[in-house]
Amino acid sequence: MTGAALRVAWYRFGATFRSRRGAYLSLVLLVGLLGGLAMGAIAAARRTQSSFVQFAQNADASDLVVPIATYNPSAGLDAGYYPGIERAIARLPHVRQVESQVELDIAPLGRNGQPIPASEGIGINGSLDGVYIHEDRPFVAHGRMVKADKDEFVMDAATARAWGVHLGEKVRFFAITNAQSLSPTASFATIKPYREFTATLVGVGVTDVGHVVQDDVDAINDSFVLMSPALTDPLVACCANDSFAGISLDGGVIGGLRYEAAVEREVAAVLPKGVPHDFVEASVVEGKAERSIRPESIALAVFGGIAALAAVVIAGQVIARRLQVDADDLAVVRALGADPVTTLADGLLGLMGAVVVGALLACAVAVALSPLAPLGPVRPYLPVSVDVDWTVIGAGMGVLVVALGLLALAGAYREAPQRSARRRQAHERGSTTARVAAAAGLSPPAVTGIRFALEPGSGRSAAPVRSAIVGALLAVVVVTATVTFGASMNTLVSHPTLYGWNWTYEINGGGGLGDIPTSQVTTLLARDRFVAAWSGVYFSTLSIDGQDVPVLGASPGAAVAPPVLSGHGLEAADQIVLGAGTLAALHQRIGNLVTVSAPGTAPVRLRIVGTATLPAIGIGGISHLEMGTGAVLAHTHIPEALTNIFDIPTPGPNAILVRTTPGAGRAAAVRSLQGIIDTLGLQGDGAAVQAVQRPAEINVYRSLGATPALLGVTLAAGAVGGLGLTLVASVRRRRRALALLKTLGFTTRQLAASVAWQSTVAVGIGTVVGVPLGIVLGRVLWDLFVGQIDAVPDPTVPGLWIAVIAAGAVVLANLVAAVPGMIAARTETAVLLRAE
After folding, report:
1. For residues 298 and 411, what is the distance between their CA atoms, to the nearest angstrom?
2. Phi and psi (nearest 5°) for 781?
3. Which of 80, 359, 618, 758 has its CA at 20 to 30 Å from residue 315's CA atom?
4. Model's pTM, two decimal places?
5. What are the residue ranges of helices labelled H in 495-579?
6. DSSP run (H or E) holding 594
7. Which residues neighbour 89 within 8 Å (Cβ) at sequence distance 6 or greater?
8. Could you check whether the bond before residue 374 is cis, i.e. omega within 30 degrees of 0?
9. How far apart are CA 623 and CA 642, in angstroms?
10. What is the enclosing helix (H) or strand (E) of 502?
11. For the segment 485-500, what is each residue's pLDDT rounded down to a tens digit?
12. Residue-wise pLDDT tens digits, 150-183
């Protein structure tokens, strides 16, 4: 831009500012509000996706959690905690810190001096050396965390309600010894207490990091009751039945990943024989949480992208209309001797200024919206705060300024006097479709409406016909893709087979650790009229190519097995089926061989024959199968010492997967299966009949509630709003043509019909093209999403809803355009022509 052209542009800006300030203000508000909404949504998507990691960092979560002892005299384990094991782990390379907790054999007494019935089966933990105080700090909703040297305890809100205790209350507890807990008649109601003590409840509404996003198998006992170290220390030697260590590695969750496998091997080497080598890895927990939260972050990001696109498209239309209105003035400026650079610069100064101010307003709006993030299950546990995402703010402002600046420059180039004259000549040829419609004998209002919809016109009568069609296309694509994705999500959540639960019920022998006698259960299941098919399975963790992987031990060719994603299921003892995530982590592919090993056994080579969507079942609270993680292999490869840790004389599978007969009533089937447990005498081992156990991902998706629908409606409203503005502008720009038609004899009804045809044609074209594009986009997005969580891909196209969308788009377009059409039709012709 030359100096002379800049001086002319500045002069013209000052001279025309009063007449153009309304357009500038509209542009500022449009860019500021829509652009701010877009940047705010994208920043919220980033904050939502990282929310669990932030929560874990705030809690100083351990990188590894592993059981280090369990009281089991038959296996040579005469205590639930060995301090030497903790010290040995602390001395291992790359171990930064170790803190432990124990599960105590204690229970609360009510005001009547009797055990509180609701406490039966609820584990009570004790902090030994600061776990949950310095490391793995939980969230406390009311009150505070315990102090190490005080006789205090904290608990979750649900358990507090069940026990009938309140914040600040002193509660009487009693303890029994480990030996008493293994008595065949063990019961807090009948055994004489070993000792009693009093503790003060100082925190209620406690939530552990691991409880925020978890599988159902981990939530069977979702209570959290923690005793302070002052209360725990005197009970460790007598009344602690097992213990866990929280291990922090050098480098934290990210840097410590390179040490994880080595430290796990070293820890396994120092653990007492009989203690399962079951690690809970923070990286796995965080990965699962991030997968679970991803739908909301994706929805927010898509919403932000659509809002950004809408801001650019609608603001671009405002810029184009402003330049079209000024086109006649440019012709005069050109006639007075202005060169092309001067005519190009005319009006750009004001428009670009409005764009920059609008972009700055967008940044302020995005920052103002930041306290609304993150969304999802972690939000209640993070402080509400203003968060400035400089990456999004900087990139968003740059995109708005550059994109709208280029549109303004292109529009100014297009509206240059010499080009607009040639374009007016081209427009005089009219629309071929309109000529075909006239030749086919359609009514004059129909032909006129088609011409209005397809012929942009020129000068002051130019209308944004392409924008109307593109706006309709965008609106239909967005709504159709959203509905398709939402329907597929509903199908996933409501069909357990798609996330690995390929049966009806699971008879669990007791927390994934108990044994179900094989011969007896086989006879009972064969007699049960509700059982169509069943398979016995074993849970453990084995080393596969040097990595610890949770496994499901099954019989080759079992009647009931997880759904296969690729290849085929387990058909022989020398085969293995992997979760898709495990396959990728091992850097293997179907057909390759892997080495499987277990402590005390010789390694075996197994061939990978397929991938499967694995159910989230196994041993609650530690590493177990998940949708994309784990393996299915012959149960003969799992040593009995790992599946029968309690040395039961008649061992068998840890669980039975049962598929019931078609039409079997739920209540009757459960009663019948529960009768099998009663007959086998497994009630005391914690055996139970369990319906579908959902993975954390599905639990989060089910808890989304109206969020996807709300975002979908907002997306649709934004797209329809942009379409409505375009249609209104298009009809208003036809006022002169409507006045001429009225002069030529068109009635008010015919004028309204012309406007209806214009809207119908514009939106009809967008709908015909947009519906299939939206379906394709929705299916593609779903396939990409479901591939991330390793579920069975089964996209759903809701035909009825899509038909309603298509019809509704046409109806809505007519409703939007009807008001300006009626106003234009009822306005006096002289007024319209004089205004022009």
Report:
1. 34
2. -60, -40
3. 758
4. 0.75
5. 518-527
6. strand 593-597
7. 68, 95, 98, 245, 247, 267, 270
8. yes
9. 14
10. none
11. 888 888 998 999 999 9
12. 999 999 999 999 999 999 999 999 998 888 877 6
